[in-house]
Design a protein that fits this description.
Helix content is 50%, strand content 13%. The termini are far apart. Helix 1 runs parallel beside helix 6, helix 3 packs across helix 4 and helix 6 runs antiparallel to helix 7. By secondary structure, the protein is α/β, with parallel strands linked by helices.
Amino acid sequence: MIQIFILTVRNAAVASIADCQHVFTMVNTFLTDRGKKPLFDVRLAGITEEVKYNGGLFKVTPDMRLEDIQAADLIIIPALTGDMSTAVMLNTPYSLWAAEQYKEGVEIACLSSGVFLLAFSGLLKGRQCTTHWSYANELKYYYPSIDVADERMITDQHGLYSSGGGNAYWNLLLHLVEKYAGREIAIYAAKYFVIDLDKSIQSPFIVFHGLKDHHDENIKEVQLYIEKHYKNKLTVDELAKHFNMSRRSFERRFKKATRNTVAEYIQRVKIEGAKKQLEIGRKSIQEVMLNVGYTDTQTFRDVFRRNTGMTPVEYKNKYSRKMLD
């Protein structure tokens, strides 16, 4: 059987622990209903006899201590809550233990913000991962050597898995079910849990907040200026001149501080403005395009799709307030 251990880390989103256990347990049921043997042995593993969550509202008792685990195939790190720096420090033993297990050939799946523990271990250096979009900037800031693909729903690289925000971890769990149990069972599980099995991006759900948790005060001023004047035509040269910097120095400092080029930042702010206007639903696509500083329909469409994974029309139809009324 495939040995799966869900880590009962501190500051975890308790639902992500319960959902993991439920998914693989139900897949065992699906298999036995088909006359097949159960495939997964799912257990909770921790470093204490009991862990309290949500201010003591929930209590979880691990099945095993980490030091007692003899063999594992997959380790699952649940989503974390609250301040990520605090959560990482509270769970350092789990991070280091997981890193050692990976070196022994064990695969590791991180649900949403749980990827911070894997990032702390150093295993993601030079590799790609995703996380909840609201934590993406923080992850990029503290771990610049990691390729944070925050638009992705899941990532799968060399036995290291990660998922995006909120319920995106369901897509990762089904991805793992498909890998271990096959496509047929994964499709049935997706239908049972009412999950879109092949959803690959979380871009439409991202709300862009430029990274400002840095110490370059001049660049923060530039960011605020862009966010205030994004409806105007903004160029790198004009911004550099306005803030009394050479273009080369300006671009270097901006990328270092925000993890975006100046052009990328301007685009993302403009598209975020367009999304908000489309959600209100009172303006046409053309009016929104002009209002955020684009004059070419094809360029606006291409940039919008690149940032959201949807065309402006598709986004308006999905999220417009008129459509929801």
